[in-house]
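go over this record:
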Amino acid sequence: DGGGQGALAADALAAAGLSVPPLRESTMSRLRLILPAAAGVTNPVDLAGAGESDMRSYASVVNALLTGPDADAVVLSGYFGDYATSAPQLADAESAVAGALADASADAGRPVVVHSMATTETPALRVLRRRGIPVFDRIEHAAAAVASAARWTALSPAQVPPFAVAPPARDVAARGGDGSYERTRELLAGYGLSFPAARFVADAGSAAAAAADIGYPVVLKAMGLAHKTEAGGVALGLQDEPALRAAFARMQQRTRAAAFAVEAMVHRPGSVELIMGVRQDLAFGPVAMVGIGGITAELLADTAVGLAPLTRHRALRMLGSLRQAPLLTGWRGAAPVELDAAAAALVAIALAGAEHPEYSELEVNPVLAHPGGAIALDAHGVLGALRTGA
C-alpha cells in the first residue's frame, strides 16, 4: 500500500527467486476501476492511499489479482493489520476486510501472504491467521515463504509423501502425559514408531510374570533415570526367571527405582544406533534432530537438525548429512540399514513433537536402524518450559 513498500517487496521476492511480472492490460483495467487515478496498477500495485479512504479496496485489489490470469500468489505488504493500533474504532472494519481477504484466497484457490508493519497482535491479524493466511513482520520472511511454497509445488508426488506415517494418538496427552517412558512410548507408538514388546511393573513377581508372557530373553530397565546404563538401571539378555529376579534385586537396591520395564530383547545384526528427537525452540518452534546414538551420542555429537514436521525426503537428507552416514549405507562391506525405515521413524517423532507442543522435548535413544527396518529401544519426554536452543 505504498510505492516504497511495494518496491522493497518486489526486490525481496526477486531475490528469493520468484518472478514479479508486469500485469496484463486486462488486469490493469480492472484495477483502474477500483483505485484512484494516482494509484500504480503495474506490478507491484500501489494503492496510493486508497486503503485509508476505503479499507475495502485491499480486498477488492487482492480479489482482482487472484482471479486474473497473471498471478499464482499475492503478497500484501504494508500497513494493513495495523489500522486498529492507532485507530481502535477501525478494528471491526479491518477485521471484516481480513475475512474478505481470506474468502478471496479460498475462492480462487491461490495463496495470499501478508507482510504487516504491525508490531503487536491485532484483531485483523488474528482473523487472518485463524483463516489460514500467513502473516509475517518482515518482507524477507514473507518472500521466503512464498518461494518455499513454489518449490514444494514443483516437486513430484513421490518426492512429497504425506507427513503422517500413522493416525496419531492425539488423546494420549489429553489423558495426562507425565513424560515417563511408558507414556512417551505410548504417544510415539501412536505415530507409527515401532517398539519391542514391554510390560511395566513394580515388583519382582510382576516382572517374572511379564517376562513369561513376553518370552525370554528380556531386558530389565529401571524407570526415572536420566542415564540408566551408568546408574546400573539396565540389564540386557536375561535368559530365564532366576537371572531376571537376581537382576531385579540388584537394580532395585542400586537405583531405588519404584517402577521397572520388562522388554523383549532385540538383537539385529548390522544395526546402527541412532538418536532422534524434537525440542520446542522459542524462536523456531519444533526442531527435529537426528544423530549417531547410543551411549556415545554426547561424545560424538554427530547430529543434524531441521524444522518439524519433516517429509521423508528431508529426513533422508538429514540422515545422509551425518559425518558417520557411511555406517548407514554399508561401511566396509557391511549390509546397509533400511534408510526408508529410519527416515520414517524420524518423520514420526518429528510429527509427534510438532503436534504435541506440551512436550518441550521428546527424545528416542537409541533407534536401532538395521537392514530389516528400525525399532526404538528407549524414549523420554519433558513436559514444561520451552528450551531456548535446539
Summary: The longest strand covers residues 359-370. Residues 361 and 382 are 5 Å apart (CA to CA). The two ends are 38 Å apart (CA to CA). The chain has a mean pLDDT of 88.
